[in-house]
């Protein structure tokens, strides 16, 4: 009798072991749940590169940041305390006006602090945010002529509604367009215009 009991017990254990093995499925092991676990935040993501911004958007953001930095740390450091919210506004355009392949920046200021009856202040900056010229009393969009002087394009700058021809003098452009010769020619359809009336207004 004891032998029969042990035989039956052994058979029962064998059946149980076989059933467990079948439920585990092929290719599974004791550590299979660990191997198939979903990755956690502790996984190494150092080699994952962020998606690149479109070139146009990246350039725009960089120019806006450069203008804001130039205004607050270089050009207007002594004026900031005197500016109200309306004065802390600007528009901008870019154009390569000296043919070096790097665009210069035109920053048109807003508000009573920078504007009078004849127009507003416009800063011309290089691509590093350094001032080339601060134009006074500019009353509208600036036209970049196809003609050059000393390697820089002539500018047709309106002041009090009258266009003036402003030419590079070797170091900068004259700051007051209204004392330059009046422009009496025709611009044609191929010229570039900067600081259009519908340019977006930004704050600094």
TrEMBL record:
Keyword Nucleus: yes or no? no
Q: Which N-terminal stretch is annotated as signal sequence?
A: 1-24
| PROSITE patterns assigned to the protein according to its UniProt record, in alphabetical order | PROKAR_LIPOPROTEIN (PS51257)
Q: Where is this region: Disordered?
A: 28-47
Q: Which InterPro entries match?
A: Integrin_alpha_N (IPR028994)
Compositional bias ranges of the Basic and acidic residues kind: 38-47
> Is Cell membrane among this UniProt entry's keywords?
no
Question: Keyword annotations for this protein?
Answer: Signal
Q: What is this protein called?
A: VCBS repeat-containing protein
Q: Could you tell me which species this protein originates from?
A: Deminuibacter soli
């Amino acid at each position: 009798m004891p032998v029969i009991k042990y035989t039956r017990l052994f058979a029962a254990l064998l059946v149980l072991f076989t059933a467990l093995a079948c439920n585990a499925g092929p290719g599974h092991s004791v550590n299979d749940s660990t191997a198939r676990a979903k990755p956690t935040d502790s996984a190494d993501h150092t080699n994952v590169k962020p998606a690149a911004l479109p070139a146009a958007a990246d350039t725009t953001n960089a120019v806006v940041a450069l203008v804001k930095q130039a205004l607050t740390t270089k050009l207007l450091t002594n004026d900031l305390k005197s500016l109200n919210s309306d004065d802390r506004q600007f528009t901008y355009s870019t154009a390569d006006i000296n043919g070096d392949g790097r665009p210069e920046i035109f920053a048109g200021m807003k508000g009573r602090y920078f504007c009078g009856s004849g127009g507003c202040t416009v800063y011309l900056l290089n691509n590093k945010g350094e001032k080339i010229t601060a134009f006074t009393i500019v009353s509208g969009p600036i036209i970049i002529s196809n003609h050059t002087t000393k390697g820089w394009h002539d500018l047709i700058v309106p002041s009090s509604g009258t266009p003036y021809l402003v030419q590079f003098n070797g170091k900068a452009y004259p700051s007051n367009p209204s004392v330059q010769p009046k422009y009496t020619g025709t611009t044609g359809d191929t010229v570039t215009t900067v600081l259009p009336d519908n340019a977006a207004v930004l704050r600094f």
